[in-house]
Structures are given as C-alpha cells and as structure tokens.
Amino acid sequence: MTGPERVTGEPEQVTGEPERASAGDVAAIHALRRSLEDWMTAHGIEQWPVGSQSAARIAAGVADGQWWVLRDDAGVVAAVRIVRTDPDYWGDDDTPALYVHGLMVDRRASGSGLGRGLVEWAGRRAAAEGVAWLRLDHRSSNPHLDALYGSWGFEPVAETDRPGYLVVLMQRPVAPEATA
Questions:
Q1: Per residue in 104-126, pLDDT tens?
Q2: 31 vs 47: CA distance, rounded Å
Q3: Taking a C-beta distance cutoff of 8 angstroms, is the pair 125, 82 a contact?
Q4: Residue 19, class by beta-carbon neighbours within 10 Å (0-12 exposed, 13-18 middle, 19+ buried)?
Q5: How many CA atoms lie within 13 A of 1 on its CB side?
Q6: Which of 52, 143, 165, 171 would suit a FRET pair with 44, their CA atoms being 20 to 30 Å apart?
Q7: What CA–CA distance (Å, rounded) separates 4 from 157?
Q8: What is the rounded end-to-end Cα distance, in angstroms, of the chain?
C-alpha cells in the first residue's frame, strides 16, 4: 500500500493510500460495520455486538477527520479510525501514541492483507507524527485477534474492564520514519 494513486481493481489487488473519509462515506462505513457485526454474530465471534456503532457516531468521527477508507471499483472495501487519545480504554495515558479503532475489511476482500496494510499505514503515520507507540484493543473473548495482532508485532500490555466484557490493550513500538 504505497503511493497516492486512487484504489481500483480487485480487492486482493488494491493498492494506494487510504483517503480521509468524507460525509459521503458515512453510509458505506456504517453498512460495512453492520455487515461485519452480522457476520461475526452468525459465526459466534464476540467483538462487535449488532448495532453497537451508530451512523451518527461514525458521522461525528468522519467530521473530526478520524475515519480513513480504501476503495475498489465496488466502493469502500476497508476502513479504519485513527485517534490520538483513547481515554475510554487507555485512561488518561499521555504517552505519545496513535490508536487504531474500527479496523474493517469487507468480506469480499477477506484474507487479502488489507487489514494489515491499514495497520502498517497507521504505523507510518505514527512515525511521521513522531509518536512512540501504535495501539489497538480487542475484546478478551476474541483470541483470534490476540493471535493476529500478535503476529503483527503487537504485545498485550493490560486488560480493562468494560460493562459486560474485558478489553485487551495492545501496542507496538513505532519504527522511526525512514529517511531517503
């Protein structure tokens, strides 16, 4: 995922940098989230309960510049929310970090590497911003994500108690931006 070109082609061949989401992307991001909530529920995966993310909340994040999307010829194929603080899960931690939330890849592109590509892109953004850590989280009841994120270099650092579930907090150091 390098270069500024617009994303086109088959999902497994998507290249290019994510684009900042616009108000026109809210419905597609919300539809992607809902489709993944339904798919996870149907497969017994506890991560995002059905209806846990409203279109209004996504719209607020888009308006704040937090959401980024990748497109293919069929539309939004992947999305991610990047924030600079995460008091809901990480508390008042003032460690310089970027936080990855809402990482989503349409099922039509499952296994294509787009999810990892978005995380690596977030890591490059973190390096460019000079922060020390790239952070994310997942429900402790989802061991698949623990293994997946671990294979991407993230280490669990804590668990936090949320109403009705535990969340695993994970981070990895940000590599300094390469100079040419």
A1: 999 998 888 899 999 999 999 99
A2: 17
A3: yes
A4: middle
A5: 25
A6: 171
A7: 34
A8: 18
